[in-house]
From TrEMBL:
GO terms for biological process: carnitine biosynthetic process. It holds the Pfam family GBBH-like_N. Converts trimethyllysine (TML) into hydroxytrimethyllysine (HTML). This is trimethyllysine dioxygenase.
Amino acid sequence: IRDHCRCPTCFHPETKQRLIETFLELPEDIHILDVREEGDLVQIVSDGHTSQYPRDWLAASALKGKTRAVGRQGTTDETDFKQTPVEVEYAKVMESDEGVGEWLLLIRKYGFAYVNGCPATPEATEKLLERISYIRNTHYGAFWDFTANMAAKDTAYTTLAIGSHTDTTYFSDPCGLQMFHLLSHTGGQGGKSLLSDGFATAKALRDEDPQAYKILSEVPVHSHASGNEGLSIQPFQTYPVLNHDTQSGELIQVRWNTTDRAAIDLPLEDMDLWYKAARKWARQLEHHHYWEQLRPERPLIFDNWRVLHGRSNFTGKRRLCGGYINHDDFISRFKMTNFGETKVLEQVSLG
């Protein structure tokens, strides 16, 4: 309790950071000397210091279970992925934080959203993405403006079909949001976009074959990005396909990219178990596909921790732009615009 005192001596009111060196300044044998109640506040005296806490905060601090994980990540519903477009208007997003909150709530709930009426220019699209947060810089650059010219050694820069996958599995922290805006497509056809709900697929697999779900949740899979000269990006540790919150046990991240997959961390005699589980996963994904053609003035953004994406092959010249947003930045902006600073900071103080 003393460690979480919120008086100005112990907690900076503007930076929201602790000001005391808990393990150096507070006595090891600290204990409560006195408790006084004043309305909704409780004053606790210890080690010559009087700390003050809201009664609700003390009650909530005693709770165990999922509540803190929910507060940390916000809310989501793994069954709400839609097979129809989920849309918000560009003007509303650009003009107000309320519009941003509405946009992010759609993404958080459904896994993706389109923005109608965005000018088909890289400049307008970049400003739209920055309404959420800073654009993540990677070996592809920050904001992309690209065609199928192999400027980067990746299948995204070809005309080939790409199967359902999540991006940046080769990063320790995969990107959180991903945006694509088709600026133009001339002299050809095809290139239809695929979205797949990873959370719904995982739930279906768990219901069908709990053992396969368990294998994909436990067996580490190596990933890499090695196509560009001088680079071989690999995460600092291996991760399974399905990753869960250690506190709540809820599925929070899907990492599935057969193109960037390397070795599987299993003894040879057990390897077949993973391949059988992965085959069932891939077949389940096909039941959760959603296809739609991208078009100018309608950027698509999706949650890369939940929604897998792909495309059909195409002819002609397509020009796209877009970029990544970090998952932590996405969740921060989502919570601030939907719950408000007071509620968010209450959750922070609870853990």
